[in-house]
């Protein structure tokens, strides 16, 4: 639901600036995005948009998390896939800004009180048309996602399940490399075993077995609905 205009995007500039992409934007583009943005609040499980929906602009997660997912195959054999979980200060939705085509996947709030900044499509396109030099900065957001997607495809094709799982946990702990500065990481990952299995195209049983092995090695600790990273360097070594 929209937030009353008394709450302004400027309240979340520190969160946005903690992200590598926004922190390196030209000042006029960063200011324009903040000025055009309004806040959206979602409850856990609430849809932000669904596959086939019309483009609605660019988003930044400033609190909570958004799951990007899809469903493939025919009923009743259709399978769900959790592609990624986006947490602050991730930006997303740029594909539809470029091609102005319908949304390719579903986006749902993963946590209660998820808060987003939305830069609506029409004013964003109008501003970019008036300042065409800044399309390059937006393209960098798109190409960064493309690099990450190619790496994920390579890992899916080449890495055994244990290494693939460890690699994904390291990436999530390090914010997929999206934070500004060096050496930042998170200790707690709010992701269930079932969600992690969906993300990696593994069975829940296989995911549980791998996590139990990593826990026995002192690299992580499993909690209900989450995973605590105990030894990030050791987990990184387990990826190879």
């Amino acid at each position: 639901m929209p937030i009353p205009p008394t709450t302004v995007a400027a309240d979340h500039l520190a969160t946005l600036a903690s992200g590598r992409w926004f922190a390196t934007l030209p000042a006029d583009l960063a200011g324009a995005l903040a000025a055009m943005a309004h806040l959206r609040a979602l409850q856990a499980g609430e849809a932000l948009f669904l596959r086939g929906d019309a483009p609605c602009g660019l988003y930044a997660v400033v609190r909570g998390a958004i799951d990007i997912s899809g469903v493939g195959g025919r009923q009743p054999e259709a399978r769900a896939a959790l592609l990624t979980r986006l947490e602050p200060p991730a930006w997303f939705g740029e594909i539809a800004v470029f091609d102005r085509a319908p949304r390719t996947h579903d986006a749902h709030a993963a946590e209660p009180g998820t808060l987003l900044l939305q830069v609506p499509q029409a004013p964003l396109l109008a501003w970019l048309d008036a300042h065409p030099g800044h399309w390059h900065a937006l393209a960098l957001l798109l190409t960064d996602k493309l690099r990450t997607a190619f790496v994920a495809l390579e890992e899916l094709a080449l890495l055994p399940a244990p290494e693939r799982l460890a690699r994904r946990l390291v990436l999530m702990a390090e914010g997929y490399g999206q934070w500004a500065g060096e050496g930042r990481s998170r200790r707690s990952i709010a992701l269930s075993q079932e969600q992690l299995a969906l993300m990696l195209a593994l069975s829940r049983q296989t995911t549980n077995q791998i996590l139990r092995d990593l826990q026995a090695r002192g690299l992580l600790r499993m909690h209900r609905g989450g995973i605590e990273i105990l030894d990030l360097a050791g987990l990184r070594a387990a990826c190879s």
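The longest strand covers residues 79-86. The first helix runs from residue 13 to 17.
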